[in-house]
Amino acid sequence: MEILIRTNAASVATAAADIISDYAGRGATLGLATGSTPVAMYKELITRYQRGELSFSQCQAFLLDEYIGLPRGHEQSYFATIRREFTHHVDIDDARVYSPDGTAENPDEAGAAYDEAIAAAGGIDIQVLGVGTDGHIGFNEPGSSLSSGTRMKTLHASTISDNARFFDSTSAVPVHVLTQGLGTISRAGHLMLLATGSNKAEAVAALAEGPLSAICPASILQLHPHATVIVDEAAAEQLRHADYYRFTEANKPSWQGH
Ligand code: GLP
């Protein structure tokens, strides 16, 4: 796992956009995440696209997760959110931006179909991830099977409370979701997790330096051969080996890529 520590959220976004730009240039299959953390990276990518520096025309994208029960037209559905925040502002083909179907009658069948669609597309080259304050990635809450496929999950009270800011009230937050599983996420070629702010410091320390455990679903990054964690100083403040990670980056050989 490579841990990159940046001074602030803006420089986290720039570092992440640099990596995604490389993949976009190769026509990669992108794994996209919602949540507030990657929004600044999406803005930076949109700016680069508008300047003519990169194109997503050869890319396709798979979203991490979706609320169950929200129609796709609902402004808080992740289907609508990723379009509003990113894909509608660049040249990716809208028909090739896929997300789990939170309106399906049988969520488990929809989940299995989603995993099949990812496999049929040749797999995800790079998966963008945020992290919940409870250590969840996608919507894989504590206790999630480390090898799970895309399936229904029930949100933790802490996630419902964290996400209530996007809805009129806490009771309006859907309780059930469809999320890529930890097994699904693990099959992506490269995992890139972003975290900013001191409220993420505990989760970042747990995922990077704590035990590999279902209690911290993000700790599956420890098993992945190509994982990059990009954090700001505030989110890095509980890392015991922060100085080592800085030293490693300062001494990174020029032949090593992202
Ligand atoms: C949501 C999303 C996750 C996201 C997490 C953190 O629950 N399903 O993909 O990583 O929240 O969100 P934020 O970046 O807003 O803190």
Describe the structure.
This protein has 258 residues and is α/β, with parallel strands linked by helices. The protein has helices at residues 9-25, 39-50, 78-85, 107-120, 157-163, 182-186, 201-209, 242-250, and strands at residues 2-6, 29-32, 60-63, 65-67, 97-98, 126-129, 151-154, 176-179, 190-195, 227-232. The chain has one domain (2-251): Rossmann fold, CATH 3.40.50.1360. It contains eight helices and ten strands. The strands form two sheets. The protein has a seven-stranded parallel β-sheet with strand order 1-10-9-6-2-3-5. It has a three-stranded antiparallel β-sheet with strand order 4-8-7. α2 links the parallel β2 and β3 (60-63). α1 crosses α2. The longest helix is centred in the first third of the chain and has 17 residues, at 9-25. Bound molecules: 2-amino-2-deoxy-6-O-phosphono-alpha-D-glucopyranose. 2-amino-2-deoxy-6-O-phosphono-alpha-D-glucopyranose binds next to α5. Pathway: Amino-sugar metabolism; N-acetylneuraminate degradation; D-fructose 6-phosphate from N-acetylneuraminate: step 5/5. The active site is at residues 65, 134, 136, 141. This is Glucosamine-6-phosphate deaminase. It is an enzyme of class 3 (hydrolase).
> Runs with pLDDT <50, length 5+?
none
Biggest β-sheet: count, sense, barrel?
7 strands, parallel
Strand tally: 10
CA distance, first residue to last residue: 11 Å
What is the radius of gyration?
Answer: 17 Å
Q: What's the CATH topology label?
A: Rossmann fold
Q: What would the average pLDDT be, to the nearest integer? A: 97
Bound molecules: 2-amino-2-deoxy-6-O-phosphono-alpha-D-glucopyranose
- How does the helix and strand content classify structurally? alpha/beta
The topology string of helices and strands comes to EHEHEEHEHEEHEHEHEH
- CATH class category label: Alpha Beta
At CATH level 2, the architecture is 3-Layer(aba) Sandwich
Give the number of helices: 8
Principal-axis shape equals globular
> Approximately how much beta-strand content do the residues carry?
15-25%
- Strands across the major sheet, in which order? 1-10-9-6-2-3-5
Helix share bin: 25-40%
Pathway: Amino-sugar metabolism; N-acetylneuraminate degradation; D-fructose 6-phosphate from N-acetylneuraminate: step 5/5
Function: Catalyzes the reversible isomerization-deamination of glucosamine 6-phosphate (GlcN6P) to form fructose 6-phosphate (Fru6P) and ammonium ion.
Pfam families: Glucosamine_iso
EC number: 3.5.99.6
